[in-house]
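Entry 12.
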Amino acid sequence: MVYSRFQVERCLRYAFEYARNHGKKARGKGDENTLGLVGKTNVLTYVYDLWERAFYEVAEEYPDVKTDYCHVDATCMWMVKNPEWFDVLVTGNMFGDIITDLGAQLQGGLGVAASGNIHPGHSFSFQNFFTLDREYRVITYFTEIQNIRNGIRVDMEGGVIWRKTGSR
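Predicted 3D structure (tokens):
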């Protein structure tokens, strides 16, 4: 895991803007918008030291967004126990992949949740939906083309923006 300051800061700025515009307060679901940094600063000291320093420096430009920090293992535990505690989370690729898989399972499984690779101001893509049936050892992939054929179109924030009539 090698990140440059530029990469980390770009990701953090996007996360702060997202928290400001789509957090609990912005949606009328809470008293404040909160952005939580997920890391493992007690073990991955070099990688997440950069994320943590940049996080608190960028946070000074967003006084309306409350900040929080949580180790990745504690985040996973609390996502299972009390997922409503979280608002918006930001982390690096590896932890993000683990946390989104956990979040997908909490809402019904990997087959119902997609994740995106978003590059603000540029093109972006959503990763394939997939399901794994352990009993029959079958993996099914749904590409974006299949999603469109099935009547599902996803916007940049991951919400469904249109569906074919009669599709589920």
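Annotation: Residues 136-141, 152-168 have pLDDT under 50 and may be disordered. The beta strands are 33-39, 65-71, 88-90, 116-117, 125-126, 129-133, 138-142, 152-154, 160-163.
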